[in-house]
Design a protein that fits this description.
The chain is α+β, with helices and mostly antiparallel strands. The protein has one domain. The protein is globular and about 30 Å long. Keywords: Signal.
Length: 80
């Protein structure tokens, strides 16, 4: 009887972890880089290549503005 309970718990744990992995992989992380300024809000030539070099080819870049910083700056988004 103990073997059946152990087997059932093991199968349940595998199914639970299997359903959690895709959702964790689908998350997007963000990192701002105020040292990389965007020229007139354009991601090229500075922001997007910087993000690709730092986080890989699946990374994206966007220019954002925030109070307290000079002009729009680069924000990278990449898979966690």
């Amino acid at each position: 009887m103990a073997n059946i309970s152990t087997c059932f718990l093991l199968v349940a744990a595998v199914l639970l972890v299997g359903t959690m992995i895709p959702s964790a992989m689908a998350q997007t992380c963000y990192q701002i880089h105020p040292e990389i300024l965007c020229d007139q809000g354009k991601v090229v030539p500075e922001c997007l290549p910087f993000c690709n070099n730092k986080f890989g080819p699946s990374a994206g870049g966007q220019c954002i503005e925030q109070i307290g910083f000079n002009g729009p700056f680069c924000a990278c988004d990449y898979p966690c």
